[in-house]
Every structure is written in C-alpha cells, then in structure tokens.
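Q: How would the structure tokens look for this protein?
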Amino acid sequence: MLTKNWKICGYKVPTYPLFMVSGFLCDVIQGCIFYILSLFYTIDREATICWTLSYSASIVVRHTSHRLVVFGEYEGSYWSSLGRTYISYASSIVISTFMMHYLDGGFGLERKYAYVITTLGTGIYNYFALKASWRPKNAESTVGSQSEKESLASNAV
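A: Here is the predicted structure in token form.
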C-alpha cells in the first residue's frame, strides 16, 4: 500500500479520506468511459446504459486503486479479490442504475448532472461495503487487529 505510512501532524491518515481520493480518480476514469460510450448510444435512456456499463468496467480500476491507496494487499488470488469487489459493488450498481434512470428520464436532468449526483450518492455507501468485504493479506497491519488491540491494552495499564 502506497499510503501505509502517511501521517499528518503525527497521526495516520484515516482510510476514508484516502478512499475519497482513490474514488475520485476512478470516477474521472469512469467519466471518460461514460463519455466515450455516450458518443455511441443515441437511444432513449442512453445515460442509464452508459452509466451501468462504465461503472461496471471501472470496478477493475477501482480494485487496483483501492489496493494501492486505501486498503493494501488483499488475501487470496487477484480473481477472488476482484470477485469480492464486484459483489461489494453489485448493490451499488443496481441502486445507481435506478438513480441514473430516474434522474435522466424521470426528472429530465442533463446527463452530466445526473452523472455527478449519482456518483456522489453512491460514494459513501461504497466505502462501507468495500471496507467490510476487503480481506487484507496481513491481518496484523489492519486497523483494529487483535495485536493492535493487545498493544493498546498493554499501554493503558
């Protein structure tokens, strides 16, 4: 993990701000995929189709970014970790697809505004879903690990 030892004023940087940075970079990539796809789709509800395809495709990039910036190495194989990541994002893909559909079609928002609202709306949920499913390679390095709790307990005595 590239950010393992990052500190501000002597305190380790929490994972959520790192997730926001990583997610933002991935949102930019997803936005580029969304834009390219939208050039080819000229049917009704094009924003919903482009959103779903771009979001699904961007999860591969998100998986790598979150490994490097936020959560560190994963337990098991690349494919099992990527599968867990897709499963974590599955409900978000469904929810965000409906959001995009209604914002674009039901409320008639422009595609770019519907994209931004949908992206912001799913970000916080995604953090908690992914954090719960990520299995770090080295459990000793995770926040809240048993050794860290024991260390804190012994320091308190």
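The chain has one domain: 14-156.

DSSP finds five helices and two strands in the chain.

Upvote if useful.
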